[in-house]
Design brief:
Its cofactor is dipyrromethane. By secondary structure, the protein is α/β, with parallel strands linked by helices. 32% of the residues lie in helices and 21% in strands. The protein contains 9 helices and 10 strands. It has a 5-stranded mixed beta sheet with strand order 2-1-3-10-4, sandwiched between helices. Strands 7-6-8-5-9 form a 5-stranded mixed beta sheet, sandwiched between helices.
Length: 230
């Protein structure tokens, strides 16, 4: 006969996530939704750093790794250290490794990109910035599109989580502005930092941008039953 402690351990669902503040906020929102639907389950968040979090001095496009923000979490799933993982959908590789599946995708928020200006440029727009002003972004997609629409600007790679990139913008003069996902700023409670929202004609957002998803092992009943119960 099982005692209460063993029964409680059996009901613990370990949720893997990146360590960044935004990743934790997104994971907390998923856990809150699951807790509301399955109050008998206990959720334990397991946070870890990924390759993309550790290598900050090289552009993402030059690192040469397909699963920059997912590999360590995938390994944890394989080793049964976590039961499911919460990701930003745009961080997933085009094809998941064999044995993995997307368990659920949360309702998508506004996917548009936003411009955050250096305090000295607070009243400006991308159109009105002086020629050769430097715009920070870690995305080739954003840089390529914005170069076409704003040829008077130059674009430079900027790495780090949202906190780090905003600090680099505010405390130094390397960048006149940076480009970030508007929804990420809102989730962090920093909507007041959004100075300009880019239209899809100016900068079409990434596939899966701002979508939060969960990944689990195919055929592993506990998380699959939670994420899409019969």
């Amino acid at each position: 006969m099982e005692n209460g402690n063993s029964q409680e351990r059996r009901n613990v669902i370990r949720v893997g996530t990146r360590k960044s503040q935004l990743a934790r906020i997104q994971t907390d929102s998923v856990v809150e939704m699951l807790t509301n639907k399955f109050p008998e389950a206990h959720f334990e968040i397991v946070a870890m750093s990924t390759t993309g979090d550790k290598i900050l001095d090289t552009a993402l496009s030059k690192i040469g790794e397909k699963s920059l923000f997912t590999k360590e979490l995938e390994n944890a799933l394989e080793r049964n250290e976590v039961d499911l993982v919460v990701h930003s959908l745009k961080d997933l590789p085009t094809s998941l490794p064999p044995g993995f599946t997307i368990g659920a995708v949360c309702k998508r928020e506004s996917p548009y990109d936003a411009v955050v200006f250096h305090p000295k440029n607070a009243e400006k727009s991308l159109e009105s910035l002086p020629t050769n002003s430097t715009i920070g972004t870690s995305s080739l997609r954003r840089a390529a599109q914005l170069k076409k629409h704003f040829p008077h600007l130059q674009f430079k790679d900027i790495r780090g989580n949202l906190n780090t990139r905003l600090k680099k913008l505010d405390e130094h003069d390397d960048f006149s502005a940076i480009i970030l996902a508007a929804a990420g700023l809102r989730r962090m409670g920093w909507e007041n930092r959004i100075d300009q929202v880019l239209s899809p004609e100016q900068c079409l957002y990434a596939v899966g941008q701002v979508c939060i998803c969960s990944v689990c092992l195919s055929g592993y009943p506990p998380p699959r039953g939670l994420l899409y119960p019969k």
